[in-house]
Amino acid sequence: MSIILLQFIIIFLHAYYCNSLQTKNDDQQLWEMARKSLAQRTREYIKDHPISEDLQSFIDEINHSKREKRQGNMYAIKNGDVVPLEQLEEQFNTESNLGPGFTVVPLLIPIPLQNTVTLKNRDTTENNDNDDPALWRQKGNHMKHYLSANKDDDDKQAVVNNLVEDKLKATSSDPSVDLSKVLADVQNLISAQKKSNSMEGALCNVSGFWNSQSGGKRFHIKRSPDEVKITMRSTEPPTEDGFIKNAWNISAEIPFAQAAQVIIRLTAHKGKKVALFLGECRVCDGSETITGDWLVSRISNNCKDQKAAHSFISDVFRKDNTETLKKAHLKVLASLTAHPTTSTELNDNF
Fold this sequence. Notes:
The protein is of the alpha+beta class and 350 residues long. The protein contains seven helices and eleven strands. The termini are far apart.
């Protein structure tokens, strides 16, 4: 009995599947018939009801704009010159009949219409050695070394001296001129001159004015045979960046006489903070810099907070010769007011 029931169920499912498949095929045929009927009725309607002049002009305008856009991206090549096709359209009857020597190419790389690109002519005969990339690189290297070897240091010095002379004369006649701005302009050229004259990687003099990038302060280090003095003040112009704020007691040490290492200690009673900087002075990228790290410490809250109470901050000190230039400038101004000075004497004094 169960076998007969199972056979009956299988026969029923098979009949249902065949019926569904036939229904799907019938639906597909009905869809094709409906689509063809709709297309035929549309053609008959358009035939019986022609398009109005306004609609036809609108369609023509759209097609015209598309055609202009397509033609704007086509170029004709004649005798090695790339010329926009639309500029030559009035010379030809059709777009395919361009005359001898023309080839129509699609726009692969956009070329501005106002720029004329000249391609290499196939008929031109050139020396094969000029097409060798290795030879061109070798010639370029020789030319580079030749130009760098023939730079005249005296010309650079003359440019710097002339600029200094002009700035000094301008500030002597107009006391309202900002001295810091004038000296900053001079410092830019002097830095460029030092970049070519200084030995890259050489040890530099720790004494002078230094601007701290991470600390946001200016340090003045004075080195003498007996001691090292250091003072700290705000940068010019002042900056709000930097971790050194409020009042700090400062001291410095240069442990080795023949080296350029420097140690700076900062202590702040407010908050009981201690900062220790260790850096070295070298000529890097043509300018004197002190590169090092700060170890900043505060009072910890508990045993777990001890490691978090210490932090390392990388810093770079950059030398600022503005103060030195200012003193030299005032000295030259004093000599100018005392007696007339020639340009040669002015250059020698600075």
